[in-house]
Every structure is written in C-alpha cells, then in structure tokens.
Design a protein that fits this description.
Helix 17 packs across helix 18. By secondary structure, the protein is α/β, with parallel strands linked by helices. Helix 8 links the parallel strand 5 and strand 6. It has a seven-stranded mixed beta sheet, with helices on both faces. The chain has a four-stranded mixed beta sheet with strand order 1-2-3-13. The radius of gyration is 30 Å and the shape is globular.
C-alpha cells in the first residue's frame, strides 16, 4: 500500500513540487553534516594594555562644539515689568518686543487679583490636575473661557507651548492624516511629530494646493474604502500666523472641511484677544459659526498677559483631553494666582470691548509707518499686532542676514527702542522663515513712540544696509 501511494504521488505531483522537495532534502543533509562554527580563541589583554586603551579613548561630544561666546547665549536682561516701558540691560526703553497686546501685564486690577490669590493659595500647585492639582479657580477660569468663546467647554494648560503640542496627538494617531500649512508655528510642528500621523503640507494659505491634496487623498480612499473608514483626517492652521503675520482664509477652509469630510484644528494664540469685535479671534473676525471648528486652542501669554493656554469646543471633544492631553495629565497645574490674573483680564476685555478697536487702529498706524524703510521689507497685514521686517536683499547667508538685523536691533536698543529678532530652531523647523526683526504693537504705544521707533529703524537701515 505504501509503495502504491508513493508511486501515485510521484506520478501525479507537479514537477516543481518534486524539484522544491529535492532541494529541501539536500539542504537538510548539508546542515546535518556541515562542520559547526568554532570561535577563534580571544586574546586576553594585560592590565597595562587595558589601562592604556582606556586612557586613549575619547568619547564623542554629547552636543556640537560651540564657540566660547555664542551670540544666542548673550541675553538681554530685563529688570522690572516688561510693560509699555521696559528696562533692558539697565537702559529704559519703549517696548516694541513683548506680546502685551492689550497692555494688561502691568494692569493694577490684574496685579491686585493675582496678589490676593497668592495670599490665599500660595505660589504653585505641586501636582497635575488629576492629583490634587485642580483648584476652584481653575474650574472658574475654564468656565469663563468657554463662556467668552461661546463654546460648550474649555480646558486650561499650565504652559502655552504645550497646549496645541498636546492637543494634536490627543486626537490624531499613527495611521491618521493631517494637512498642515507650511507656515505653521513650532508648537504645531512638535504636536505633529508626537502624533506620528501622516503629515501632508500645503503651501501657505494656498487653498488650491490644499484642495489638490484633499482630492488626491479622496482618490486613495476610494481604492481602499475599508481603511478610509477608520482613518481620521485633520486640517491644522493658525488663525493669525506668528511667522508671517497674516490671517488664514477661514471661510474657504470651512467649505473644504464639509466638502471632503475633515476636521479643523485652529491655533489662535496670536488672534485671541486681538481679532473680532469682542476679541474672540478669527472666527468672529470672519463671522464663522464657532461650531464649524472642531477644536480651538490659544495661549494666555499674549493678550491675557498671564501664563498657560487653553482649548475650547464641544464637551465630548474637550473631555477627551483630560485623559489623553499629555501637558494636562503630567504637568503641574497652572499656579492659582495666574489663573486669577487671567480671569480678571477676561473681565476687563468683556467690560471694555472698545480696546480691540483701539488696538486695530494702532496696528494699522504702525503698519503704514513702517512701509518704505530703505533696505527692509514689511511682512504682514495691517491689523496684525506683530509685524516682521525682513531684508529686501538677502546676503545669501542666513547667519550674515541675522547679524545685519541684530545690528539694527542693537542700534535701536542703544537709543531707547526695544525690538527683537524672530528666533527659530533652524535645524528643527520644517520650513524655517527668513530672518526678521519683529515689531510688536500694543494699545499703550503713542504717536511719539511710533515716530521714535520709525526714526531709529530708518537711521539704522540707512547706515547698515548700504
């Protein structure tokens, strides 16, 4: 019977089966009879040889070698509050450098509320929100922010940078897709990196380029509808871009959201407390229903003159961050005195909405004044509170351009006008912006201040950019 079965298999089996089986049998025979590999005898070092080798060994540097006096470590030291007037390196200056847009940093009402909170709660919290770090003043601030922004709920973070950097990876994971503007700020970029999602960049404020990417993704989804059903897609933009000082085309973005079924995350650190009749940001500026935006984030370190940040939106969206927002779950909560200061700043914003119109007019005035400076190009829109002055003609070297602009900043500083260079981590930035001087406008600046700054910037540009 066995002989018949073998003969039957041999006759009926395909030829390639027989060849494959023959090769496997030969390989097994070779393995069985091949010689085992033997390690060569190792040479044992003497104690003296070991000591010599250890002495000769040089470890690789932990970080790149820098010069003894690197320019980025030469800090300008501030003494006193960085408000309308600022003292830098012992010299009193008009402040065109701090993001104190509404002039609330040194406001007496805000300081008194912070001081009363300091006496009541102490300096800090020494614990995250989930571990005895939630104070009644935190809950009050979240409630007030949600009410101010006309959303269901808000969540606060103790560090502005960590707000959007924590929010993005809380929702978008590996396998999801994020469409991002090339001019997105560094905190957004770190959030993208932490999410491990597929990132697709579109040209700055170019809705045609964004729609091209969305159409391409739609075609990909049609090829694999099963995967498309579980893949989340997001658009991440800034309301008012810190690196370009221009506003996002939000109405067109909302149209694309519904057309291609994606979610919108809106970062409003530069537009919150600045744009809109009541300072609610770019949604109010364009008259967009805030419910059309899936998540809004902003820091409280600019218009509110406090520390930290917040996200707001629908309750089920915000509550998810309380369990998965890394900056919320693992950082000590916001010091109560800073939360109290932010609440009082909101009170002032609600009591006097005219301050937003005043700020807008000041921005337009400074924008007009800064045009036509020889050798410098003004970047931004008329109602942006933080504008950029870039070189009209680059030297071809980023370091040289930075040095030229630094010389202009130093020239103005010596004469009592505080400006600042826009700083970037060039090796970390996906699309590093050109070097620039940042000029920040606040409601406290007078016509005399603006003319003084303009005069010295023009003098410096004429002397240095020949």
């Amino acid at each position: 019977y066995y002989t018949v079965t073998v003969q039957y298999i041999t006759v009926n089996a395909p030829a390639y089966h027989l060849i494959l089986e023959g090769i496997l049998i030969l390989w097994i025979i070779r393995l069985l009879f091949s010689k085992t590999y033997k390690l060569h005898e190792t040479y044992k070092l003497t104690e003296k040889e070991k000591e010599d080798l250890i002495e000769e060994w040089q470890p690789e540097p932990l970080v790149p070698v820098v010069s003894k006096d690197p320019p980025f470590l030469n800090y300008d030291v501030v003494t006193g509050p960085p408000s309308y007037q600022i003292t830098i390196n012992g010299k009193k200056c008009v402040n065109f450098a701090s993001f104190n847009f509404l002039g609330l940093l040194d406001n007496e009402r805000v300081k008194q509320k912070a001081l009363a909170s300091l006496k009541k709660y102490g300096v800090g919290t020494c614990g995250p929100r989930g571990f005895y770090g939630t104070f009644d003043v935190h809950l009050e601030l979240e409630s007030r922010l949600a009410k101010f922004m006309k959303t269901e709920e808000a969540i606060i973070y103790s560090y502005g940078f960590a707000t959007i950097a924590s929010a993005i990876p809380a929702y978008s994971k590996r396998g999801d897709i994020i469409f991002v503007d090339e001019a997105a700020c560094f905190s957004i970029q770190k959030g993208l990196q932490a999410s491990r999602s597929l990132i697709k960049y579109f040209k700055h404020n170019d809705m045609e380029d964004l729609e091209r990417l969305l159409k391409e993704q739609e075609l990909e989804d049609q090829k694999n509808p099963r995967k498309a059903r579980v893949t989340r897609k997001f658009i991440v933009v800034e309301g008012l871009y810190i690196n370009t000082a221009d506003v996002c085309p939000l109405p067109e973005l909302v149209q694309l959201k519904y057309k291609y079924k994606v979610r919108i995350f809106l970062e409003e650190s530069m537009s919150f407390g600045v744009l809109g009749e009541h300072g609610r940001g770019v949604t109010e500026h364009f008259g967009i229903n805030i419910d059309d935006i899936d998540l809004i984030s902003a820091n409280m370190e600019n218009a509110l003159a406090s520390i930290g940040g917040f996200c707001c939106g629908r309750s089920f969206v915000i509550d998810h961050q309380r369990l998965s927002g890394q900056g919320y779950c693992f950082s000590a909560s916001l010091p109560p005195m800073l939360a109290a200061a932010a609440i009082e700043a909101l009170n002032i914003m609600e009591e006097d909405p005219d301050i937003f119109a005043v700020l807008k007019e000041k921005c337009k005035h400074v924008y007009k004044a800064l045009q036509g400076i020889p050798g410098l190009k003004l970047v931004g829109i008329p109602f942006a509170p933080a504008l950029h002055l870039q070189l009209q003609r680059s030297s071809g070297s980023r370091d040289c351009d930075m040095q030229l602009l630094r010389t202009i900043v130093d020239y103005c500083l010596e004469r009592g006008v505080a400006l600042t260079l826009a700083r970037y981590l060039e090796k970390e930035e996906r699309f590093p912006p050109p070097p620039s001087i940042r000029v920040v406008v606040t409601i406290e600046h007078t016509e005399e201040d603006v003319q003084k700054a303009l005069s010295y910037i023009q003098e410096a540009a004429s002397a240095i950019l020949k």
